[in-house]
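pipeline/complex-builder :: batch 7 item 3
reading input block
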Amino acid sequence: MSSSIHLANAKGRDATIGLVPIKAATAPTLGLPGQKLYFRRYLAAKEGGTHQALSKKFSGDYGHELVTSDPEVDIEAIGAQLGQTQRVYLDGGGELMYSDPKFIEVLLNPDGSEKERREPVDSAMNVNVEVPIKFSGRLMPVKDAISRFGFRRKLQLRHVDGLTFDFLFDIAKELESKESLMIIGAGDKGVSPMIFQANGRPYRGFLEGKTKDKSYRLTLHLSEMELKKPLASKRKAGYGK
Amino acid sequence: MAKPVILTSGNKQYSFDVTRIDRAKLYGVRKRLPLDANGQLCTKASLTLDGENLLSSGMTAQGYFNSEGLPISRQEMVGLDAQGEMVEKIPSTLGFPQKMEGPVNASEVLDLDVESFFCLEPIEVETSFLAELKSGAVYKFCFNYSAGLEMESAYLVANDDGFFAIVGSTASGEWVEEAAVYAPVDDDDTFTDDLDFDSL
């Protein structure tokens, strides 16, 4: 994910500035008091010990063999810790593929039904490219923004030098005076979604600014969805078809 | 169906049916399918770096082990905070009345590190309260969809389409002074699940 953003302010002045994700403090985790625990992945069965392989070998029900002879346990291998692995693909016949498969893209409707099949469409990162992310000029009151959009992530904008400090401080001061969020985005009008990595999710951006003495806080709230009822809920309630 | 969300304010009680919503439920999903030369669907597998083992679904397991290599089951483990102190498991709040605070300032919602969104369908709610929500009032309550080690905060909001709960934990950015030095964050820490398609 891009750790910087090329941003233009309302006057069209642009700069490349840093991005820092804002996350809650780490939640409590499971463990044992006073003991360090290690999470490990290990080998539980070899190829000949899977259900399919055993069913084929013993022609169906192999329960008796499991009890009397442990055919699924390779004493030399089972339990071995697994480190890094490489992703590979098995073809339709279960054979290892030595070249990359061809990919197709399937679009599914919210109810799971297939909508379309097509060649994959790649989307490029657009937040730190030649054309800066722009102010759309549209302000949205906080009350409206939080009830219409689901803000799933947020990033803090950070200056990288003295000039960008002035740039961001002025933006924060201007937004604070308006008591609203500024919609920012890609494209000429600043309304297209922002994409932070290749094939990443598109986000709508809402910029919030505050100042305190000689410090500032500029937060980019990212929305990937609106707040609305799923179609299934609407149908149950008698809305729509 | 999940138990309802029950909220109290003074001597009044309101209940809502709750449904989790996400991008997939609203807009659908994009998946990328791998096909072999004959157009048949491929399956994903893993190859150990030494080439010894080809790992398909069902061949691996995972778990916690102590420093002596002995397995530790989840049933033996307890909740520990950042200081290593024990924390009690907090039960789900569904079906149990939760006190509502508010109306609160709408900007409080922006201080949330959001975990999930829920659509709320009124079961027993006064129309005056629903009208107050639709006019922009925001209320706050404690919420745990399932039992866990931490109680989350939820904000009740409304728009023309319905009523929603925004759930998460508080996280607001720092005040930044000119002398503050910016250090880019490791890629592993951010947006790790951010691809716009599911890959089979």
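note: The longest strand of chain B covers residues 112-124.
queue -> next item
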